[in-house]
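User: Sequence recovery, please. Input:
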């Protein structure tokens, strides 16, 4: 039971850590277009991201798939940029939940491989990695839902008070996210 709680906390604070800005930026890019009326869709998009994240951790932990870490570190901000570009170009024109679910599971795979090496180091001496993996995945899901809740509150308030049109807000935030993600890529060079 201690292992489950330890890894749940690790997953929780992995996403809520400011040094893991890539997760925060991706979650923001992924959900900035939604308000509370879209909660069911947002819940599933974030859950599919977690499923992808967990699957890649599983594949990495058991040495089934181990993509080069430099490639993954480049692809993570690239997924954030692509999601933000999607927001700018497609916003409310033809949103397709199925496409967004597949989008988030695929990008979750990439993001999960980013944590795979660290997770493997933490669990290398353990007899079983399943309980730590489940705990970590649950912690990630809880923290993501907290972040998404905050984003939905902000989006809903801005939508209700009509301070800035939601479309303009989405595009502005998406541009800021792209610039921050480009900075992440620049720091790798």
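Assistant: Recovered sequence (189 residues):
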């Amino acid at each position: 039971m201690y292992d489950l709680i330890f890894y749940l906390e690790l997953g929780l604070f992995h996403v809520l850590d400011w040094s893991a800005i890539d997760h925060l930026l991706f979650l923001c890019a992924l959900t900035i277009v939604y308000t509370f009326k879209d909660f069911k869709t947002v819940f599933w998009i974030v859950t599919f991201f977690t499923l992808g994240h967990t699957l890649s951790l599983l594949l990495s932990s058991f040495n089934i798939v181990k993509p080069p870490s430099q490639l993954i570190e480049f692809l993570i901000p690239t997924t954030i940029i692509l999601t933000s570009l999607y927001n700018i170009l497609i916003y409310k024109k033809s949103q397709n939940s199925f496409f967004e679910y597949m989008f988030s599971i695929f990008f979750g795979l990439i993001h999960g491989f980013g944590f795979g090496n660290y997770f493997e180091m933490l669990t290398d001496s353990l007899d079983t990695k399943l309980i730590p993996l489940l705990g970590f995945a649950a912690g990630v899901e809880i923290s993501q839902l907290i972040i998404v809740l905050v984003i939905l509150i902000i989006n809903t308030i801005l939508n209700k008070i009509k301070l800035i049109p939601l479309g303009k807000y989405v595009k502005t935030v998406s541009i800021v996210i792209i610039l921050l993600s480009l900075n992440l890529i620049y720091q790798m060079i």
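The radius of gyration is 17 Å.
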